[in-house]
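Think of the structure tokens as a kind of shorthand, similar to the way a musician reads notation: each symbol stands for something richer, in this case the local conformation of the backbone. In the example below we present two proteins back to back. Begin with the first one, reading the sequence and then the tokens, and try to describe in your own words what changes along the chain.
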Amino acid sequence: MIATANPSATRVFFSAFDTLTYPVELHLSAQVTSRCPVTGRSIHLTVTPEQVLDLDPAEAQVSLIVDVAAGCCHNVREDVCNYGHFFASRETGKRLFNAEAKKSKSKKEGRGRMPYPSRETIAERLWGQLRCEQEDLCRPIVQQVTRGKPVAPAALRASLQVSQDELEQRLARLLPDVEFDRAGNIVGLGVTLVPTSHRFQLGGQVLYTWCAFDTVLLPPSLHVEAQVQSTCPVTGQPITFVATPEGVIRDLSPASGVMSLIVPAQRSDCSRATFCQQSLLFQSEQAAATFLADHPDVLLLSVEEAASVGRLVARICSLDAT
């Protein structure tokens, strides 16, 4: 995700190229910050209507697809913006697109579906759409729930040193993605005390997650190891594995297990009702076939691939916090 800012506004763009054309079209100067999807390195520059200034690193490059054959661009954002990135250098750009070309060919031949974006691209977009914009509020909630305890608003208000009205206003901005019990305590935000189809065990503490992707995102985000048990919604087959803080999957059973995932087009699509209902664990690609036919925008990844995306998202979040 790429952001530009002038003295009065901040805007987010889907493609690196947009950040270069926007100042020209509107006759203004902009400060641009992006991140190399290969190395995670931050890239900074100033774009004026006439030129680019203060490029850091100086060897940074931008990728762009310019030869889109008629009829092949089904979705501009997916087909064009997937290829518009800033890279720390020409070599890092080559590494990503060479690897992506190999993976796309393999997946197209093996699954008969449109080629997927690279894991780095998926992670970058997920981070941009799923990250909590109130990190100081979200993190203590998640940390407390992962200890197996509900979060009392009074305790949260004291730790944040805010008034009751301010806390209510901030929580309202998270709704509907906060889960409360009858006493008004917070019991869920991605990870929850309320049973779902995704069981998430930390040590002896039994928890649950809202969606399948949470089971591979939370371990690297919280630096914990989790035992996961879910159920294929088609066959009813249990799916179990261990997710590590390093983004590694161990003891996957059955070994053919796969995970569905959607990259939200906009932040309003990131609610539990939309995102989580399309992030599921299936016994196999065959078991997921009917679901995919009804949800053409859904990606189907191996559990190992999904865990790699989760690790990349967690890494970007940690870099963004520094």
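Once you have a description of the first chain, move to the second and do the same.
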Amino acid sequence: MTMKIKLPKEVADEISFAKFIGVTFDRYIVRELTRSDYKDAATYTMIQSPDVLNGIEMLLNAWNNGYTVEEKKYSVKVPHTKDVWYYRSWNSDLRTVTGKEICSDFTESEIEHYGLQDCEKVEVTDDEN
């Protein structure tokens, strides 16, 4: 059983669109490597790191076997406070805690679900987990 690759949302969107318009994988890769706006292209960035062949192999695997989408996660600060953050309790109730160390990480859809769209968000990076 092949494990599905996790892709950033931007790359998943590019693959999904390419498949939707009927582009072959070969044409998709050539386009991504030669596009004039490559600096803004998520797929181009993925292909280039850590090396071209590894990046292309990962994309081919995602193209053929499917993929899951990595969602960005955020810590969410309580408005009008100095250092109070939201977290989900064991029963999914929304609570607050002082200090960012134990706050919950929320996806965009969770932020919307809890009505926290107007709150300050800080993106959680891999080195914080």
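Compare your description with these statements about the second chain. The CA atoms of residues 5 and 62 lie 6 Å apart.
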